[in-house]
Amino acid sequence: MNCPKCGTPLKDGDKFCSNCGTPATVQQQTYEKKESNIDEIPKHGTTYSVQRESVPTSDSNTIETPQPQITGMVQRPAFVVRRLPIFVIIVLTMGFLISSFIFEEGDADLAMILSCLPGIVLMFLIYKMDRIEPEPVGLMIKLFFAGACIATLVSGLIESFIGMIIDFLFFWDPVVYCFMEAFVLAAATEELVKYFLLKKYTWKHPAFNYRFDGVVYSTMLALGFEIAENLLYIADSTLSTAFMRAAFPGHCVFGIYMGYYYGMAKSHEIHGDQEGSKKLRKKGLIITILIHGGYDFLCMLGSSSENELIQILTGLLLLISMIVLNVTAYKNIKKYAYYDSPV
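Request: output the structure for the sequence above.
Response:
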C-alpha cells in the first residue's frame, strides 16, 4: 500500500506516511478523485469531434448530415505567464535590496509603508488561498495583536537579558558573537515566543480543523510581530533599512514553515499519535530557527565585518538566500493550499 498523497510505500500497521504525515486510511478517495479528474482532461493537442444525429428531410429520406470535426487544444498557460509571479518576486527582491544601498534618507511614512507592505501582501495571499473554510476574523485579529504586542514585548525583555550574557562571554570573537546573536538571541528567542503564543491561542480552537489552518495562524501572528519590529527598527533608522526589510518579509516566511509542521502535528494528535505530533512540532520549530538564524547571521556578519571581500560575499549570499526563500515561500503556500485536508 502506498501513501495516497506522495506515493511513499507504507508498511503494515503504519498509521501515517513517514514522508508527508498523511494518515494512511484518510483521503484515499479524495486523491483518487483528483487523479481521475486530471485524467479526464484532454491532453495537449487532443482532437475531438461532435457528431450530429441523422435528420429526416422533406423527401422522407434520411440523410446523414456531415460530421464536422472540431479540433480543440487544451493548453497550459504560456511559460512566461506561469512563471510571472516568480519573476515579479525576484525583480522586487533585487530592486528593494539594491535600493537599500542607494537611498539613505527619505520620508519616514514611506519607509514604514515599504517595510510592512510585502508581509501584508503575503498574508493576504495566504488567507485567500484558504478557500475550503476561511478562518474566524476574531481569531485572526487576536493572533495579529498577540504577535505585535505580546510577542514583541516578551521577546524584547528576554533578548535584553540574553544580550548581556552574550556581550560578556563572546566579545572576543566577532564571528562567534554574530553566530550567538543570530541563532540564540534573535532566532531561538523570537521563534519560541511566537510558537508558545501560537499554541496557546489555536491548538484547542474548534476552527483549527484543516492542515492549512496552521499556516494561516502562524503567518498571521508572525505578520503582527514583523510589522511591530519594522516600526521599531525604522523609528531609529533610515530609508535604507526599510528597503532592506521590504526585500524579505522574514517572519512571515519563517511562519510558513512553522505553520506547515504545526498543521501536520495537529492531524497526528487527532488520530491518536501524540508522539508523532510532538516530533513534528519540534521539527517545525527547529527548521524555523535554523532558517531564521542563518539569515540573521549573514546580515550581522556582513554589517560587522570591515573586510570588503567578506562584505561582498555576504551581500551576494544574502541576495541569493532572499530570492530562494521568497520564491520557495510562494511555491510552498500554493502546494500546501492545494493539498489541504481535514486534520
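The mean pLDDT is 81.
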